[in-house]
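Researcher: Structure prediction, please.
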Amino acid sequence: MSKAVLKKENIVLSSTVSDKTEAIRLAGEVLVSEGYVEPSYVEKMLEREELTSTYMGNFVAIPHGTESSRDLVKSAGISVIQIPEGVDFGDGNVAKVLIGIAGKNNEHLEILSKIAIVCSEEENIQKIVEATSKEDILSLLGEVN
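Model: Predicted structure follows.
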């Protein structure tokens, strides 16, 4: 069983988006282009956002699909979108880091728990927001496999 791994190809630096829909779409499109999910998974990520916000606090949002979207996931994957200017996630919440998740057989939980630990420290979020290379983000969020 392979576990979800964060790779350079899964990271997008210095994104500018007009709204949270575009931001979530971008996080999902990385998952699609890297082969983790079917294209329709992106719509399920947007559907999930309608149900309840995936904004987690500390400038971080973690968009992911709905329960019914599990069949659209080919393998567990993570995308990281850096939005230095931030994007409004509603209720005055601004996300500067989006972590898109495609979960399969709980393989994503290990990396998600690592991310949660890193993201609980505000200074780490600041480092991700200010990172100028994908390697900087990889080193903050865990080892490169």
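Model: The mean pLDDT is 90.
Researcher: Thanks, that helps.
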